[in-house]
TrEMBL record:
Its main location: cytoplasm. This is Serotonin N-acetyltransferase. The keyword Iron does not apply. Residues 1-34 are annotated as: Disordered. Controls the night/day rhythm of melatonin production in the pineal gland. Catalyzes the N-acetylation of serotonin into N-acetylserotonin, the penultimate step in the synthesis of melatonin. It comes from Panthera leo. It catalyses: a 2-arylethylamine + acetyl-CoA = an N-acetyl-2-arylethylamine + CoA + H(+). The lineage of its organism: Eukaryota, Metazoa, Chordata, Craniata, Vertebrata.
Length: 207
């Protein structure tokens, strides 16, 4: 797969505000959209890692995906990612991949299984200056909508620390128990969510 390929979202979801119309007789100005939601590419990896560095490394000493892993997954499965850009700057992101077993295992930390039907949500983070403004929630709902349009995806799964379980439950994720994956001394809960509701809406809307 070309690392140059981009996966724009459907028009109504990709841009919240239209660009200012061009004034007659004036040279076109290339303004960046106020808000843009799109799948990430390997070229976005440095911006993703910059957010991760502050969100995870400065707090936990580790992070879900290091720079080369970000590039790896954004090359293998960019369609399972989403970034929120404000005037061209990345403010929040989600990176996923596919998994093919009922539960997450230590192996799922490094593998993308293209034949799988479960979207493994590996990392979600909002730039620290934009937290607590509802951005994480908006991005998650948009991402779930985007996943629901992918016929291969029947389920979504993630792991998180205890404190974030209620946050993910608001998106329909169900706690399935302790996760088999540990990072150093950190332990996590595993949550799952069926994507059938999104899929049936897709079928009923005929899109
Ligand atoms: C977790 C995160 C993605 C949430 O994004 P956000 O834009 O700050 O969240 P929102 O403003 O949409 O908040 C939604 C709700 O989640 C709650 N919430 C947000 N972050 C939380 C946290 N770290 N612990 C517990 N609850 C949290 C909020 O209190 C809010 O609840 P409310 O509506 O009852 O007030 C963001 O805080 C972040 O990037 N954190 C650092 C990285 C991280 O921990 N990522 C998740 C890894 S599993």
């Amino acid at each position: 797969m070309s690392t140059q390929s981009t996966y724009p979202l459907e028009p109504e979801a990709s841009q919240l505000q239209p660009e200012t119309p061009k004034a007659p007789g004036r040279q076109r100005r290339h303004t960046l959209p106020a808000n843009e939601f799109r799948c990430l590419t390997p070229e976005d990896a440095a911006s993703v890692f910059e957010i991760e560095r502050e969100a995870f490394i400065s707090v936990l000493g580790i992070c879900p995906l290091y720079l080369e892993e970000i590039k790896h997954f954004l090359t293998l499965c960019p369609e399972l990612s989403m970034g929120w850009f404000q005037e061209g700057r990345l403010v929040a992101f989600i990176i996923g991949s596919l998994w093919d077993q009922e539960r997450l295992t230590q192996e799922s930390m490094t593998l993308h299984r293209p034949g799988g039907h479960t979207a493994h949500l590996r990392a979600l983070a909002v730039h620290h200056t934009f937290r607590g403004q509802g951005k994480g929630s908006i991005l998650m709902w948009r991402f779930l909508h985007h996943l629901g349009r992918q016929p291969a995806v029947r389920r979504a799964v993630l792991m998180c620390e205890d404190a974030l379980v209620p946050f993910y439950q608001t998106f329909g994720f169900r706690l399935v128990g302790p996760c088999a994956i540990t990072l150093g001394s950190l332990t996590f809960k595993e949550l799952q969510r069926s994507m059938w509701d999104h899929a049936s809406r897709r079928r009923n809307s005929g899109s």
